[in-house]
Amino acid sequence: MGVFELGTFIFSIVAFLIVFFIIQRFAFRPLANMLEQRRKHVETQITDAEKSREEAAKLLSEQKRLLDEARKEAKNILDAARVRSEELAREITQKAEEEAARILDENRAAIARDRDEALAAVTARVAELTVELTSKLLNNHVSTEVHNEMVAEAEKRLGELVC
């Protein structure tokens, strides 16, 4: 068993306090300061990271908004183009129908004109042949007046037959 010596005990306490004071003065304070700086640095980085995250979220929402606007604008452009193409198709169809109607009317008028000309030519030719044949048959036994009446009657009847 050891013997308790008061002098050694006091010397040990004093030595411990001196070493403690030295360590606290030259090791603990710089270490505490360094830890405090490190804590502040970490807090700053956390704050910066939080700001960066918020800024990134704002940018993301802004990009989504811009993308939505671009989609809406593209849709509006497509809708306008679709409406315009339908209008153009309707205009082209209407013009084609008008042109077809005009051509049809012109052709109907030409056919009617040609028919009238052909009928007139046939009537004239039949009248000439009738007069010629009648003249040959009657062999100058009819007066000029009677002859003209017969021609007029023949033309009239031929006209009725043709129409």
UniProtKB/TrEMBL annotation:
Subcellular location: Cell membrane; Endomembrane system
CDD domains assigned to the protein according to its UniProt record, in alphabetical order: ATP-synt_Fo_b
Membrane-protein topology: Single-pass membrane protein
Membrane-spanning residues: 6-28
UniProt-listed Pfam families: ATP-synt_B (PF00430)
Record's keyword terms, sorted: ATP synthesis, Cell membrane, CF(0), Coiled coil, Hydrogen ion transport, Ion transport, Membrane, Transmembrane, Transmembrane helix, Transport
Record flagged with keyword Transport: yes
Organism superkingdom: Bacteria
UniProt-listed SUPFAM superfamilies: F1F0 ATP synthase subunit B, membrane domain (SSF81573)
Coiled-coil intervals: 32-113
Family: Belongs to the ATPase B chain family.
HAMAP family: ATP_synth_b_bprime
Entry function: F(1)F(0) ATP synthase produces ATP from ADP in the presence of a proton or sodium gradient. F-type ATPases consist of two structural domains, F(1) containing the extramembraneous catalytic core and F(0) containing the membrane proton channel, linked together by a central stalk and a peripheral stalk. During catalysis, ATP synthesis in the catalytic domain of F(1) is coupled via a rotary mechanism of the central stalk subunits to proton translocation. Component of the F(0) channel, it forms part of the peripheral stalk, linking F(1) to F(0).
Oligomeric and partner information: F-type ATPases have 2 components, F(1) - the catalytic core - and F(0) - the membrane proton channel. F(1) has five subunits: alpha(3), beta(3), gamma(1), delta(1), epsilon(1). F(0) has three main subunits: a(1), b(2) and c(10-14). The alpha and beta chains form an alternating ring which encloses part of the gamma chain. F(1) is attached to F(0) by a central stalk formed by the gamma and epsilon chains, while a peripheral stalk is formed by the delta and b chains.
Identification of the protein by name: ATP synthase subunit b
Organism taxonomic ancestry: Bacteria, Bacillati, Bacillota, Bacilli, Bacillales
